[in-house]
Specification:
By secondary structure, the protein is mostly beta strands. It has strands spanning 3-7, 10-13, 18-25, 33-39, 46-51, 58-60, 68-73, 78-83, 92-99, 111-112, 116-121.
């Protein structure tokens, strides 16, 4: 049974930082593209960042480029999202995603975590 378990969310002031973690089990982690999505209240789920199998290639949405960094540790079956200079508009539930062929489009995702809430106060 595949499980993706996010942690690290919370309340932070604007300009602050958080690091999200996603621990994966039940799958061959290094064989999956990993990604982070977010969903704000009343909005659609959107891709934030993605990282390919060995971590050599990453993707970041324009809205977070230069502020968020995705990384992975295949030895620990964990993917991270370092979020710096957070803004109130970053407030959302953040979801970890795993996909055999990709993890930056909703249609590519095979497995989802349950999400972790990030709230950024102004």
């Amino acid at each position: 049974q595949v499980q993706l378990v996010e942690s690290g969310g919370g309340l932070v002031q604007a300009g602050g930082s958080l690091r999200l973690s996603c621990a994966a089990s039940g799958l061959t982690f290094s064989s999956y593209v990993m990604g982070w999505f977010r969903q704000a209240p009343g909005k659609e789920r959107e891709s934030v960042a993605g990282i390919r199998y060995s971590g050599g290639s990453t993707y970041s949405a324009d809205s977070v480029k230069g502020r968020f960094t995705i990384s992975r540790d295949n030895a620990k079956n964990t993917v991270y999202l370092q979020m710096n200079n957070l803004k109130p508009e970053d407030t959302a539930v953040y979801y970890c995603a795993a996909g055999w062929s990709g993890a930056t489009k909703l249609s590519d995702v095979d497995y989802w975590g349950k999400g972790t809430l990030v709230t950024v106060s102004s």
